[in-house]
Amino acid sequence: MSSFHVFLTSDYLLASLIPLVLFVLSLLILGNPKDVLEVIFGGSRTRSAVPGHFSLQRAAASYAQYTQLARGELSTMRKSYGGMSWAHRRIGYDLGYTKKLARLEESIQVNGMVASSIARLAKEEFPEEMDGAHSGLLRPPIAGDLGRVRESLKHFVRDWSQEGCGEREKIFGPILAVLREADPVMRARMQVLVPGAGLGRLAWEISELGFRTTANELSFFMNLASRFLLSEKTTQRPNQHVLQPFSSWFSHQRTTDTLFRSVSFPDVVPRLSDHLVLAEKDFLSIRPPEGSDGFDFVVTLFFIDTSLNVIETIEHIHSLLRPGGQWINLGPLLWTGGGQAAVELSLEEVLKLAEMLGFDVSDDHAPQHLRPRTVECEYTADQTAMMKWLYQAEFWVATKRL
């Protein structure tokens, strides 16, 4: 018997093949040779497998899972209804409650069309980040965030529908009044930063005045929804899309029809241009425009109270402005609770902080458009509901000292 034949029939061959078989199986599971090495040697990707709350991957997964998650919630509602006695179920049937749940299922389909389109666009525009992200047995799928998707869909109403016009006018009005005082001829050379831009309506309005505007937003729940409007692939004409944005919350509703009412959007079609650009990243990573002394204006709308360290935030606003540049603010002070915020300041303390960091805050003796004032307003409100959440938001203009 030859030595080769002995090798083929011995345990040596089996011992040699086992590592190769395991390697091939690893490729099938992980999908990428780099992933195999990272599992073996502890690479960085395996240590940061869970995406952040506002990351592209989590946002895209949440939009993709919207219909599944919403139907799961509907299933729980039907189970709760079914847990009543026969007599009570009969009363519910006579009231039309089973039809109401059926309308919710239809509403989920309506909203799911928009959510699915956003998810598909995300895959097209970010193929490398989305391709095979968190797939395979060793990478469990990302858990979608139904609440954040619903919040983003309501922002379509606030920012880009006729129904949201009244809410926008109240909070945009004081800000735009300040910017309209700038010389129209000079506006094309003036830079405006809008951090926490959300779905970008305020930034777009500012760019329409002729300013070079940067819309800055960290959350990809907002960024992907904004891209859905900005892309010619998904939005070509006004009022092209339809949502039933308030159907998920049965509380405080006057009628079933108002609960399931449809809202068309966008009322106008936005596009990126030389006057409107996106900065999809953390505000604290923003730097002054290249070749300039800084932004002419920083506009914060319902933004500064999202800071975990408002001292750092206002300090950064100051660093981004040119000498003589203006910080325009409107919003409440709804700090992140649970002890997460490093400081939770009163209005008095915030204004004192601004002075300490190098701002002069306009007072009641300033021209009318610059005077501080309280603006009573809502935020993504359901205009037909029995409940209203009113903010006593504060407006002020602060100038960076020369």
Automatic annotation (TrEMBL):
Family matches, as SMART domains:
N2227 (SM01296)
Q: Does the keyword Cell wall biogenesis/degradation apply?
A: no
Keywords tagged on the record: Membrane, Transmembrane, Transmembrane helix
Concerning InterPro entries, the annotation shows: CARME, SAM-dependent_MTases_sf
Which Gene3D superfamilies does this one have? Vaccinia Virus protein VP39 (3.40.50.150)
**MF (Gene Ontology):** S-adenosylmethionine-dependent methyltransferase activity
Bilayer-crossing residues are: 12-30
Spell out the PANTHER family in the cross-references: CARNOSINE N-METHYLTRANSFERASE, PTHR12303:SF13
- What is the name listed in the Swiss-Prot or TrEMBL entry for this protein? N2227-domain-containing protein
Species in which this protein is naturally found: Lentinus tigrinus ALCF2SS1-6
Highest lineage ranks of the organism? Answer: Eukaryota, Fungi, Dikarya, Basidiomycota, Agaricomycotina
